UniProtKB/TrEMBL annotation:
PROSITE patterns: AA_TRANSFER_CLASS_3 (PS00600). Pfam families: Aminotran_3 (PF00202). Belongs to the class-III pyridoxal-phosphate-dependent aminotransferase family. One of its GO terms (molecular function) is transaminase activity. It comes from Sulfitobacter porphyrae. Coiled coil: none annotated. This is Aminotransferase class III-fold pyridoxal phosphate-dependent enzyme. Keywords: Aminotransferase, Pyridoxal phosphate, Transferase. InterPro entries: Aminotrans_3, Aminotrans_3_PPA_site, PyrdxlP-dep_Trfase, PyrdxlP-dep_Trfase_major, PyrdxlP-dep_Trfase_small. Its cofactor is pyridoxal 5'-phosphate. SUPFAM superfamilies: PLP-dependent transferases (SSF53383). The lineage of its organism: Bacteria, Pseudomonadati, Pseudomonadota, Alphaproteobacteria, Rhodobacterales.
Length: 451
């Protein structure tokens, strides 16, 4: 219940994706500080941060190395533009670092922006201009997956495959098409994961043939779908995506906003599937969320189309896009420090190991509680979906079972995010198995009490 002192928390902010009435009655927790996997609220209560902020604070909260890097840059200059013939060294060094880190994927240049939606937006404009420059002006369409999430700006949103994100804003941009995602749980086609991968890849191929390959610019997907409910595709799916894109001369964009920099247990999500995309989008974990930053990486094939080889200041080949905060030196300095921690502490490996333990512990819980309909994940990206044990179907949404479980966990000092009746677990990579035990025990207790 709101008190006089905390009712103002919801009076002036319009919170993202939140019901005003709900937040007025249930004021948000005021987060005041953080250290490692923990955050502390304004009453001094401590929580394990099971969502790493918004799956971005990968190296944990309050890292001195990142604070020092930001302060050192702040003492030099806080901001200067990289438009029009000036640059700054943190952005140059970060671009080099990103190219190094994505060498196995073949990335050669970085385009900077301020977050995931902008990184995706830039990718879409990049592929459209790319095909124009290649003399294929009709190749404009973008194909994506149902349940995919690529951001909220109108371009990125047009590729989203989540109905609740889209419905208020339609009509979205023309030329965006969604095809079936290989989601095993509850699908009507097959219970064989690999076969489902083949079926869904064939559906994509048929859609490309239907649209006409000469009209399709790119296909975009997340290596593991995140907001859509942590949907892990079968191992044959991404290699087939690459084959299909090659066959029809379509660019493959891997949206690595969540999966980049270690969350799946490999430095890149694409690497987990052994696939080289043409473009990769980054944000979130690029600098563990210390300052907003996005990046759109491209391979040589894409980059070369923008390279005139002449010295004219203005060229029709210049990428006609850019935001004020492109290459923000504070954000780039934070990224360099964060990526150093990721490498020095071998955090992708930790994410893989601790994530496997987390899944194993949750499987034990699932065997004791029939309310857990499905459990899936890779590394520290885990989804738990509830089902009504009496019907095997989702609970009536009005029962708010997922919300009650999440509230119970929060009460006990564990933050576990729920999107309706699916829990999304995405802690910082510095998580240890002891934290996992505490989280799983609390979660089980909450599930038992929600029955
Ligand atoms: N792509 C993916 C895969 C995401 O998960 C998100 C955010 N959850 C975005 C893009 C958009 O990022 P942002 O919220 O920083 O705009």
């Amino acid at each position: 219940m709101a008190t006089r002192s905390n009712s103002r928390l919801a009076d002036s902010i319009l919170y993202p994706f939140a019901n005003i009435g709900h937040l007025t009655e249930n004021p948000p927790v005021v987060v005041e500080s953080g250290e490692g996997v923990y955050i502390t609220d304004s009453t001094g209560k401590r929580y394990i941060d099971g969502q790493a902020g918004l799956w971005n604070v990968n190296v944990g909260h309050g890292r001195e190395e990142i604070k020092e890097a930001i302060k050192a840059q702040l003492d030099r200059i806080s901001y200067y533009t990289i438009f029009g013939g000036t640059t700054n060294m943190p952005s140059v060094e970060l671009a080099e670092r990103l190219c190094q880190l994505t060498r196995p994927e073949g990335m050669v240049r970085a385009f900077f922006s301020s977050g995931g939606s902008e990184a995706v937006e830039a990718a879409f404009k990049l592929v459209r201009q790319y095909w124009r420059l290649r003399g294929e002006a009709a190749k404009t369409k973008i194909i994506s997956l149902k349940r995919g999430y690529h951001g909220v700006t109108l371009g990125a949103l047009s590729a989203n495959g989540i109905t609740s994100n889209r419905e208020y804003f339609e009509p979205l941009l023309p030329g965006f098409i969604q095809v079936e995602t290989p989601h095993l749980y509850g699908n009507p086609y097959t219970q064989d994961h690999e076969e489902l991968g083949r079926i869904c890849a064939d559906m994509l191929e048929r859609e490309i043939q239907y649209q006409g390959p000469g009209t399709v610019a790119a296909f975009i997907a997340e290596p593991v779908q995140g907001v859509g409910g942590v949907i892990v595709p079968p191992a044959n799916y991404w290699p087939r995506l690459r084959e299909i894109c090659d066959k029809y001369d379509i660019l493959l964009i891997a949206d690595e906003v969540v999966t980049g920099f270690g969350r799946l247990g490999t430095m890149m999500g694409s690497r987990h599937w052994g696939v080289k995309p043409d473009i990769m989008t980054f944000a979130k974990g690029i600098n563990s969320g210390y300052i907003p930053l996005g990046a759109t990486m491209m391979n040589a094939k894409v980059a070369e189309a923008f390279d005139t080889g002449d010295a004219a200041q203005f060229s029709p080949k210049a990428f006609a896009h850019g935001n004020t905060y492109a290459g923000h030196p504070l954000a780039c300095a934070a990224a360099l420090a964060s990526l150093r921690i990721v490498e020095d502490e071998n955090l992708p490996e930790n994410a893989g190991r601790v994530g496997a333990y987390f899944l194993k512990r949750l499987k034990e819980v699932q065997s004791r509680h029939h309310m857990i309909g499905d459990l899936r994940g890779q590394g520290l990206m885990i989804g738990v979906e509830l089902a009504n044990p009496e019907t095997g179907r989702p609970f009536d949404i009005s029962r708010n079972v997922g919300g009650r479980i999440s509230d119970h966990c929060r009460e006990k000092g564990v933050i576990i995010r729920n999107l309706a009746d699916t829990f999304i677990i995405s802690p910082p990579f510095v998580l240890e198995t002891g934290h996992v035990d505490e989280m799983v025990d609390t979660f089980e207790e909450a599930v038992a009490s929600a029955g």
